[in-house]
């Protein structure tokens, strides 16, 4: 509690807009007349006395004195740091100012009483807490300023009032606040004030700091960006110099490029709109880069490029003849197609063919029969550019029609890319493997293709990415497929089909001699004078080293032979010129892979046991022979009923049921022990179990295999068969006769059984193949059994008497 003691009379040292609190030591400038007067008065009064000269330090705010001053002792008089005369004064304790009085010297003298502002004793707990709080706050503030020594000093002050007064040093307190501190004589109240102001200041400082930090970071980022940009610019400049470009031809000048390009009016408008957008968008924005990619695509499209059609039908026919051997009917169909097209264009009718009118020529056949290369020849014949669009495995509509530009990484569809690649608006576009397009949740690519192929729509084809119309009406579309059945119905409707069923051995030899060999010789760096391949070698390659409808593997085999010869020559092991004969093949490329069944050791033939018959089938790879195996389960251990294996489709399963039913009902008549069929389980298997198979045409083969099994009679090795069987045993017609007969011939079969009603199809089969085959058209499955089953206990290869 503040109380008073004996009065004092002291010279006033006025402090203008400045406050000194007890405990502080301050240097004061003696050039100031008020300071000088007070100090000199104090010195005079103290002369002859013990104790230091004493003054009363009183803040004078706007000319008015505060009500409380501080008794100060003059510790030292001398020079200040700047060389001026000064006095060092230690402020000691509060003094309540009383009335003015007179005294010696120029100074103003007043009376005052000392204020007793000593701490309460004992300290209440709350005050101890307050002391701790102040010390913690002061420490954290001082630490921030790096004032470590002061931290220690503050920590050592125990006196409550002195602690509060110590904040007189705080630069953040206003003069008014310091006066308030001075005039608050209760030490606890004073410390409360000090705590409040200090914590306010610290909070403000935190905010200020975080703002400053944010500002600094922003500045740093801008600075970094600026620096990076400068570097980028420098790199660009350097690159331009390396590439010999001058400053002016910045490839970014899209407006000029669009203006200069020969674009259709609507496309130009759309492109300029995008350029506007681009100029508005910032350099680095993702939108900018999308727009640039789009503009590049548009500018790269050959909008006004068109090749001149310069062909007459005679010339076109010679090109086709020169590039492909054989295929006479196919080439004829293509020639007709070209003739019609040319007439219609010459008369300005356009190419609209209508439904089934054949706007699109589809080449259907097994791999390697030359579908793709025929497409290329069509382009040569017409004098147009050629592009191939592979459709195998395309399931997404966007592949055909493009992604919308809002997609990340959007691209135009394959049709647009094909036109770009062709570099003209009227190329020949080959839609390869159109039977392999699928459809799923990503839309139906077939529907998009339909629009591409439809002459009524395709002059305004819209790609999702491009968004501007593209005129496809002058494009010649061709399609290829392996399997007719797999082409989506709607597409099939628009197509004019041309079948390529595969080649005979003679045809392959001619193709190899006239086309494959010369091409591969060139690729192997050899010429015809150095290496010749005899025809019998080519025939052996076609017949024994490969077994295929087309000539792709044959071409590979030829390549292997030539590579070997070239390598041997380089190593000095082979003199050139050299003629490759059939007898050299084994030494050059090893043993043949495909030996006809009839050439096998009888015991190793597939048909060496009862229950195995040879059938004929058509797969995606062309015609093929396939073996059907039947077995009966042990009556003791096996399950009854019919088991079918080999990935068979429903139709094929049904024809197995029919074969079984037929035998059950006609067993007696056929002299077969069909009772076995009742008691024992039957298993029919089609080897090559991984390949899915379907269709009714294996009916006769399954019946024959079962009959062979029951009778114990072998099926003749040289016989292969095809045909559907009815419940009454009639043999019904099937498809793919030509491919099947070619396959039978390739496999070395000599006798073929076909349904009588397919006899007309024999006209399509090359004469040389027919000449080598003994073809039996039949109406009833009993005839099949008679022809195919060897007599009981006779060796299987007994030939049928012609
Ligand atoms: N009749 C032919 N005359 C000349 N060369 C041919 C003939 N048939 C095929 N070829 C050649 O055989 C090779 C394979 O033909 P291509 O690639 O056109 O087969 P494809 O039927 O398109 O097969 P895929 O269906 O696998 O694409 C080509 O190098 C082609 O030139």
TrEMBL record:
<dbReference type="GO" id="GO:0005524">
    <property type="term" value="F:ATP binding"/>
</dbReference>
<dbReference type="InterPro" id="IPR027065">
    <property type="entry name" value="Lon_Prtase"/>
</dbReference>
<dbReference type="InterPro" id="IPR004815">
    <property type="entry name" value="Lon_bac/euk-typ"/>
</dbReference>
<dbReference type="Pfam" id="PF22667">
    <property type="entry name" value="Lon_lid"/>
</dbReference>
<dbReference type="GO" id="GO:0034605">
    <property type="term" value="P:cellular response to heat"/>
</dbReference>
<keyword id="KW-0645">Protease</keyword>
<feature type="active site">
    <location>
        <position position="697"/>
    </location>
</feature>
<keyword id="KW-0067">ATP-binding</keyword>
<dbReference type="GO" id="GO:0004252">
    <property type="term" value="F:serine-type endopeptidase activity"/>
</dbReference>
<dbReference type="InterPro" id="IPR015947">
    <property type="entry name" value="PUA-like_sf"/>
</dbReference>
<keyword id="KW-0720">Serine protease</keyword>
<dbReference type="Pfam" id="PF02190">
    <property type="entry name" value="LON_substr_bdg"/>
</dbReference>
<feature type="active site">
    <location>
        <position position="740"/>
    </location>
</feature>
<comment type="subunit">
    <text>Homohexamer. Organized in a ring with a central cavity.</text>
</comment>
<dbReference type="InterPro" id="IPR008268">
    <property type="entry name" value="Peptidase_S16_AS"/>
</dbReference>
<dbReference type="InterPro" id="IPR014721">
    <property type="entry name" value="Ribsml_uS5_D2-typ_fold_subgr"/>
</dbReference>
<dbReference type="GO" id="GO:0005737">
    <property type="term" value="C:cytoplasm"/>
</dbReference>
<dbReference type="InterPro" id="IPR054594">
    <property type="entry name" value="Lon_lid"/>
</dbReference>
<dbReference type="InterPro" id="IPR003959">
    <property type="entry name" value="ATPase_AAA_core"/>
</dbReference>
<keyword id="KW-0547">Nucleotide-binding</keyword>
<keyword id="KW-0963">Cytoplasm</keyword>
<dbReference type="InterPro" id="IPR046336">
    <property type="entry name" value="Lon_prtase_N_sf"/>
</dbReference>
<dbReference type="GO" id="GO:0016887">
    <property type="term" value="F:ATP hydrolysis activity"/>
</dbReference>
<dbReference type="GO" id="GO:0043565">
    <property type="term" value="F:sequence-specific DNA binding"/>
</dbReference>
<dbReference type="InterPro" id="IPR003593">
    <property type="entry name" value="AAA+_ATPase"/>
</dbReference>
<dbReference type="InterPro" id="IPR020568">
    <property type="entry name" value="Ribosomal_Su5_D2-typ_SF"/>
</dbReference>
<dbReference type="InterPro" id="IPR027417">
    <property type="entry name" value="P-loop_NTPase"/>
</dbReference>
<dbReference type="InterPro" id="IPR027543">
    <property type="entry name" value="Lon_bac"/>
</dbReference>
<dbReference type="InterPro" id="IPR008269">
    <property type="entry name" value="Lon_proteolytic"/>
</dbReference>
<comment type="similarity">
    <text>Belongs to the peptidase S16 family.</text>
</comment>
<feature type="domain" description="Lon proteolytic">
    <location>
        <begin position="607"/>
        <end position="791"/>
    </location>
</feature>
<dbReference type="InterPro" id="IPR003111">
    <property type="entry name" value="Lon_prtase_N"/>
</dbReference>
<feature type="domain" description="Lon N-terminal">
    <location>
        <begin position="10"/>
        <end position="202"/>
    </location>
</feature>
<dbReference type="GO" id="GO:0004176">
    <property type="term" value="F:ATP-dependent peptidase activity"/>
</dbReference>
<keyword id="KW-0346">Stress response</keyword>
<dbReference type="Pfam" id="PF05362">
    <property type="entry name" value="Lon_C"/>
</dbReference>
<dbReference type="GO" id="GO:0006515">
    <property type="term" value="P:protein quality control for misfolded or incompletely synthesized proteins"/>
</dbReference>
<dbReference type="Pfam" id="PF00004">
    <property type="entry name" value="AAA"/>
</dbReference>
<keyword id="KW-0378">Hydrolase</keyword>
<comment type="function">
    <text>ATP-dependent serine protease that mediates the selective degradation of mutant and abnormal proteins as well as certain short-lived regulatory proteins. Required for cellular homeostasis and for survival from DNA damage and developmental changes induced by stress. Degrades polypeptides processively to yield small peptide fragments that are 5 to 10 amino acids long. Binds to DNA in a double-stranded, site-specific manner.</text>
</comment>
<protein>
    <recommendedName>
        <fullName>Lon protease</fullName>
        <ecNumber>3.4.21.53</ecNumber>
    </recommendedName>
</protein>
<feature type="binding site">
    <location>
        <begin position="365"/>
        <end position="372"/>
    </location>
    <ligand>
        <name>ATP</name>
    </ligand>
</feature>
């Amino acid at each position: 509690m503040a109380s008073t003691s004996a009065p004092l009379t002291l010279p006033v040292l006025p402090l203008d807009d400045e406050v000194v609190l007890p405990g502080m030591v301050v240097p004061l400038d003696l050039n100031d007349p008020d300071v000088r007067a007070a100090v000199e008065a104090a010195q005079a009064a103290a002369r002859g006395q013990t104790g230091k000269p004493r003054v009363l330090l009183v803040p004078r705010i706007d000319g008015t004195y505060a009500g409380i001053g501080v008794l100060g002792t003059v510790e030292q008089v001398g020079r200040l740091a700047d060389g001026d005369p000064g006095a060092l004064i230690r402020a000691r304790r509060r003094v309540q100012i009383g009335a003015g009085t007179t005294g010696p010297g120029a100074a103003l003298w007043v009376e005052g009483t000392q204020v007793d502002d000593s701490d309460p004793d004992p300290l209440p707990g709350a005050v101890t807490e307050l002391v701790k709080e102040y010390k913690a706050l002061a420490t954290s503030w001082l630490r921030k300023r790096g004032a470590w020594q002061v931290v220690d000093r503050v920590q050592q002050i125990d006196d409550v009032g002195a602690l509060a007064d110590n904040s007189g040093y705080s630069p953040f307190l206003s003069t008014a606040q310091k006066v308030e501190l001075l005039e608050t004589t209760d030490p606890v109240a004073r410390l409360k004030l000090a705590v409040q102001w200090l914590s306010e200041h610290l909070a403000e400082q935190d905010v200020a700091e975080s703002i400053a930090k944010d500002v600094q970071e922003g500045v740093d980022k801008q600075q970094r960006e600026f620096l990076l940009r400068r570097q980028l610019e420098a790199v660009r400049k350097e690159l331009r110099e390396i590439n010999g470009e001058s400053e002016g031809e910045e490839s970014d000048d899209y407006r000029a490029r669009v203006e200069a390009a020969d674009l259709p009016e609507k496309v130009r408008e759309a492109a300029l709109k995008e350029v506007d957008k681009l100029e508005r968008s910032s350099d680095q924005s993702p939108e900018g880069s999308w727009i640039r990619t789009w503009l590049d695509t548009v500018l790269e499209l050959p909008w006004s490029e068109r090749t001149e059609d310069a062909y007459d039908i005679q010339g076109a026919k010679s090109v086709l003849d020169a590039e492909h051997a054989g295929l006479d009917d196919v080439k004829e169909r293509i020639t007709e197609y070209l003739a019609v097209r040319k007439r219609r264009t010459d008369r300005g009718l356009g190419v609209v063919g209508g439904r089934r009118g054949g706007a699109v020529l589809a080449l259907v056949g097994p791999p390697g029969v030359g579908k793709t290369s025929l497409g290329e020849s069509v382009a040569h014949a017409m004098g147009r550019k050629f592009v191939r669009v592979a459709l195998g495995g395309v399931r997404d509509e966007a592949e055909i029609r493009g992604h919308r530009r809002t997609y990340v990484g959007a691209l135009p569809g394959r049709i647009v890319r094909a036109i770009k690649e062709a570099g003209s608006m009227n190329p020949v576009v080959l839609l390869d493997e159109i039977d392999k397009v699928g459809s799923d949740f990503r839309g139906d690519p077939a529907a998009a293709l339909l629009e591409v192929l439809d002459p009524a729509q395709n002059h305004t084809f819209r790609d999702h990415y491009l968004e501007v119309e593209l005129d496809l009406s002058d494009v010649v579309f061709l399609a290829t497929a392996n399997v007719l059945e797999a082409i989506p119905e709607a597409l099939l409707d628009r197509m004019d089909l041309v079948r390529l069923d595969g080649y005979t051995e003679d045809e392959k030899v001619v193709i190899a001699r006239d086309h494959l060999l010369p091409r591969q010789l060139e690729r192997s760096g050899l010429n015809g004078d150095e290496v010749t391949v005899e025809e019998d070698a080519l025939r052996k390659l076609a017949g024994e080293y490969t077994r295929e409808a087309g000539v792709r593997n044959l071409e590979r085999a030829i390549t292997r032979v030539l590579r070997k010869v070239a390598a041997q020559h380089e190593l000095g092991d082979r003199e050139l010129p050299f003629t490759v004969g059939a007898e050299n093949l084994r030494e050059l490329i090893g043993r043949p892979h495909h030996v006809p069944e009839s050439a096998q050791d009888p015991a190793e033939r597939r048909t060496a046991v009862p229950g195995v018959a040879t059938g004929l089938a058509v797969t995606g790879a062309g015609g093929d022979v396939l073996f059907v195996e039947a077995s009966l389960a042990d009556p003791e251990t096996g399950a009854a009923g019919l088991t079918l294996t080999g990935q068979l489709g429903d139709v094929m399963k049904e024809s197995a049921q029919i074969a079984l039913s037929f035998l059950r009902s006609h067993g007696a008549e056929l002299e077969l022990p069909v009772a076995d069929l009742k008691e024992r389980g039957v298993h029919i298997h089609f080897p090559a179990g991984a390949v899915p198979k379907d269709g009714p045409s294996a009916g006769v083969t399954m019946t024959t295999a079962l009959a062979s099994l029951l009778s114990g009679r072998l099926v003749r090795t040289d016989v292969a068969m095809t045909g559907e069987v009815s419940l009454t045993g009639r043999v019904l017609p099937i498809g793919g006769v030509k491919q099947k007969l070619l396959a039978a011939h390739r496999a070395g079969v000599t006798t073929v059984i076909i349904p009588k009603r397919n006899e007309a199809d024999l006209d399509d089969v090359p004469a040389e193949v027919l000449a080598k085959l003994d073809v039996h058209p039949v109406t009833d499955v009993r005839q099949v059994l008679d022809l195919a089953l060897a007599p009981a206990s006779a060796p299987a290869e007994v030939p049928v008497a012609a």
